[in-house]
Design brief:
Heat Shock Protein 90, 5-stranded parallel β-sheet, Rossmann fold, 20% strand, 14 strands, alpha/beta, elongated, 11 helices
């Protein structure tokens, strides 16, 4: 709110009080003030329709409405104009409540000094300026994120069809000309094309999953977490057999309220990672435990894998963060980003505890 003059609307039915406020405003020079006075709420609404008001001094006890209801009616008509509530000495609690309901400050009539009056106006204007700036920044960020996610979805979706063609025709060439007219070098290049295409396909799938998290709202369902984890573990059977891994699931899993699709993404990614990032000569052992802490269900997934060094722990939830080469451990670097975004979308948090060489624990805290 950077203006040469501030326009203040006084809504006050007591003429002596109104005159007192106007006299103090006339002496206010930084910032200079123009002011108008009306004695009824309905007249205030009519004046607000014309625009140009920067701050409202609102008596909460007017002939047509009393107490906090006065503020509610004013906020309904002018939600984006800062308000200082004026209340009676015996009703100071109403002023406190008014601040909790959206007024920027309150003053007790009969106990208003000029210094306190001017301080309240300056404080309210500055607080509103800061809050409005933060609100606009948040809106811009929200819009930019939505546009970025939409762009990611569009690009990823449009890349799928030509990529399928590249992989498909490369596989046909590989089958048709293997052991025939193509030499070993050519076949090697062709195999590299197929492998790179499949890796890109995994990347596109993960990008699509990331862009979809939270889109279209989050439906809350009631489901038994243990039953869901059983299904996820069964879906990982081939990987468990391949690594000779073991997953130990605690028996006391709760029935929770959350979004089943997002929670499935979270545990699928974490368990898949735990099966992937293990020591070459040590089969992965994964423990899933549960405890109830205050208003959260806390589920911890611990493994005996390779762990994460301290210097890398702060960035593992960022998109495209990979700590190993494809030859060492395959992946896209998006899985943990999906996990974090999904958890935060459900209102939960995720914590990491890890030591390089000794394994990793992820603790997921889901609100009840």
């Amino acid at each position: 709110m950077n203006k040469e003059k501030i326009n203040i609307l006084i809504i006050e039915d007591n003429p002596d009080d109104a005159k007192y406020y106007q006299e103090m405003l006339d002496r206010m020079t930084t910032p200079p003030v123009e002011h108008e006075h009306v004695s009824r709420l309905i007249k205030g609404f009519k004046r607000l329709k014309k625009g140009g008001i920067d701050l409202i001094l609102l008596d909460l006890f007017l002939p047509e409405t009393k107490g906090i209801k006065t503020l509610y009616k004013m906020r309904e008509k002018s939600p984006h104009i800062p308000i200082i509530a004026l209340t009676r000495f015996e009703d100071e609690d109403t002023g406190v409540k008014a601040v909790g309901e959206g007024a920027l400050d309150y003053l007790v009539k009969g106990d208003i000094t000029e210094n306190a009056f001017i301080r309240s106006i300056k404080y309210s204007l500055e607080r509103y300026r800061v809050e409005e700036s933060e609100r606009q920044s948040a809106e811009k960020l929200k819009k930019a994120n939505a546009e970025l996610e939409g762009f990611t979805y569009s690009v990823s979706h449009d890349l799928r069809a030509p990529l399928r063609s590249i992989i498909g025709f490369s596989e046909i060439l590989s089958k048709r000309y293997r052991n025939k007219s193509m030499d070993e070098k050519g076949l090697h290049y062709l195999d590299n094309i197929i492998q790179a295409g499949k890796q890109m396909g995994m990347l596109i799938d993960d990008l699509l999953d990331y862009s979809r998290v939270g889109q279209g709202g989050v439906t809350i369902e009631t489901f038994h977490l243990g039953e869901l984890l059983d299904k996820i573990i069964k879906g990982l059977n081939s990987k468990i057999n391949e690594t000779n891994g073991t997953i130990n699931l605690s028996e006391n899993m709760p029935t929770i309220k959350s979004n089943i699709t997002l929670i499935t993404q979270v545990f699928s990614n974490l368990l898949s990672n735990a099966l992937t990032f293990h020591h070459p000569d040590t089969p992965p052992v994964i423990d899933i435990k549960f405890e109830e802490i205050f208003n959260y269900w806390c589920i911890t997934i611990s493994d005996n894998g390779i762990g994460i060094s301290k210097e890398h722990q702060s960035r593992i939830f960022n998109v495209f963060q990979r700590l190993h080469t494809q030859d060492e451990y395959p992946g896209t670097g998006i899985g943990l980003s999906i996990v974090k975004k999904a958890i935060e979308t459900t209102g939960g948090v995720i914590e990491l505890h890890s030591e390089q060489g000794l394994g990793t624990s992820f603790t997921i805290k889901l609100p009840k």
